[in-house]
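Rotation project, supervised by the postdoc (A.L.). Task for the rotation student: set up a whole-complex structure prediction and record inputs and outputs verbatim in this book. Inputs entered:
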Amino acid sequence: MSASMAAPGLLADRPANDILLDVRDLRTYFHVMDGTVRAVDGVSFSIRRGQTLGIVGESGCGKSVTALSIMRLLDIPPAEIASGEIIFEGRNLLKLSEDEMREVRGNDIAMIFQEPMTSLNPVFTIGDQIAEAVMLHQGLSRKEAWNKAIESLKAVGINNPERRVKQYPHEMSGGMRQRVMIAMALSCDPKLLIADEPTTALDVTIQAQILELIRMVQDETGAALMLITHDLGVVAETVHDIAVMYAGRIVEQGSVDEVLLSPKHPYTEGLIRSIPSRGMRGQRLNVIKGTVPNPFNMPEGCNFAPRCPYAFEPCWTLDPQIEEADPPDVACWLYTPAPGFLAPKRGAQRVAGELASGIRS
Amino acid sequence: MSKYIIRRLIQAIPVLFGITIVVYAILLAAPGGPTARFANNPKFTEADREKFKKAWGLDQPIPVQYCRWMGICNPENEGLAVFIGSTGWPAFLPTSISGTTNGLLHGDLGVSIDTGEAVASRIARAALPTFILAGNALVIWILVALLIGVYAAIHRYSLFDQAATVFAYVGYAMPTFWLGIMLIFLFSGPGLNILPAGGMTETRLSPPFGSDTYWPYFAANPATAIVDIVKHLILPVFTLVVVNIAGDSRFIRSSMLEALGQDYVRTAKAKGLPVRVVIFKHALRNALLPVVTNIGLEIPFLFTGAIVTETIFSWPGIGRMTIEATRSFDYPTLMGLLLITSALVVLANLIADITYAIVDPRIKY
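Outputs recorded:
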């Protein structure tokens, strides 16, 4: 954590050792009555200071579980972090004691949840709920913390914060509550902000405002952001890097331009194709055929093979790993020759790149 | 808020009026009647029965009986004049205006057929023993149920939780009369004779509780008198606590489990709050909301008492009086008891609603 004092904003020039969060081979399993669900099954990624990483994928692909594993907010049991390391500023979070972890939560890493309607406690005022964390982590007095709460409400664009701070969550709209959640997350100046589908539960008009707000406060505070979403439009506007998850794995990662403009993995391609665009009036929506595999009965070979239009022989027997690719940007036998097979040349999928340009405009 | 309370109190008036009619109708429909107390008395002739009925006003048509009991009719007048009090004003008006003293509207619940005493003062005398017994039991069982419920919810599926579940089922299924008698057998029987088997005071040492001589005795030896009552309280309170903890602890456990699974608890954890604060501030506060309503509805128990437990432990309270009045066909006493109980249920509902509005900021009246 030496060369970490650089001003935020100059992201591209950062040295590679300026890594804030480094997740290595994370495996989170749930032991339930019917067996074991490998919700996160060997995920590795890293986020540099001030950087923004988008994690994209369908419901149930392990995005949220990854975030909750980082925060260590899963109930153990039934959850189990079977292996892996989560290195945050040089410390492995999985090895911290519960008390040390509490110091990290809310203070170094803050989280915004999907459901603003239920994520705030209905029986305490907004001010109470923000001040509580500030008093705990920054050792401020009640009065100072209350002022800080007012300040952070102002920072997230809430009008008349002196009045709002005394209100209860039910007196506010969903968008307003999500602003409060963001104010709460930022109140202790975290180094990493994890936003788990922050706009999914909101009206479309409010979504844009909230995204803009997250981007703005991130710029101001220099915090890194891990944005979890299933909405490619959201990541295209907000993030630097993307990791695409499917069935508990990262199947493709790279900069937002690389991944969205020239997707490699057939799943990423499918996701981009399934975005409706204006030019498609009167046509059927493209969908990825089939459904997410049954977690108790994962296919042999590539998890995506049953839904993949390009699947060929190795996909049915051999499991591609993103780490084995060179560069490690995609887990697909189309790009990394499977042992004993040749990777076929593919031109057809490049069409997706044109489609993707639609979502950036 | 005060507007709401006043509105609710005004709404309660027609409800209570309806209750008097329903209670009266139910008792009329019940087999027996006030003269059934003499059914097995061979000396009680048909002429005696007529005399008895006339003396108690039972020869009047039922609406007139009801109106006299309510205090709308003046029993001293005949014909249409029954509705007029002795001063010439309508009889249902307060005593100071109408001069009428009989009936519910004038605070008179009639006279007990059994003892000849005014029902109101008879009930008032039994209310304190019941309040002592039920109050102690209620406070203890709610506190213990809270501890068990919350602890079991936090440590779900632990050995403690499993044990509490088993205890709850056993306690819930256990008949009060069986448990009470077993406790008497164990602690007051020949083997381990350490606690009194029944009553409220040691009759050889002190005057009966509530009698004219009791309070001077109490003032002279307060310590002895209190210890005496406490000794008599232990077994009946224990009986009530065991039987009632079962349901309440399960209720509190499930309420707490629900709160612990809420998103805002996860938010609180994500803020880095200590587990203690997450559980006892964020989760418990919400878990207690439904519990408040539940406890509010248990308030009438402080008056009605536990019929079976009071009977088994010969506790001189309302519960035992209810059984005695039923057994001896003492209709005025029964009417009084049922009416006060119903009124308390209405009141307890109101108290529960008001408390709920105080503890839950989302509710505004």
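Student's summary: Chain B has a mean pLDDT of 87.
Supervisor addendum: The CA atoms of residues 245 and 295 of chain B lie 12 Å apart.
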